[in-house]
TrEMBL record:
Protein name per Swiss-Prot or TrEMBL: Uncharacterized protein
Recorded superkingdom: Bacteria
Lineage per the UniProt record: Bacteria, Pseudomonadati, Planctomycetota, Planctomycetia, Gemmatales
Amino acid sequence: MPTRLDAGQQVMAMLERGWVWKDAFSDILVHPTDHTLAVQFDRASNVLRLSPALVQAVSLVIPTRGGKKRRS
């Protein structure tokens, strides 16, 4: 089972996958093509807060085991 990331590690992983800071002084990460998908990073408490649009998008994801093929 994969190791859980803390908030700071998750932010780094999101940046590696193309997410960007909203602006130079922001604590908000946004998806590169849909800025309604956002995460606010509270550095003091090491917590991420998801935008309502991101919460909705994540709720649509169906987790599957690694290496499992999709049915046609």
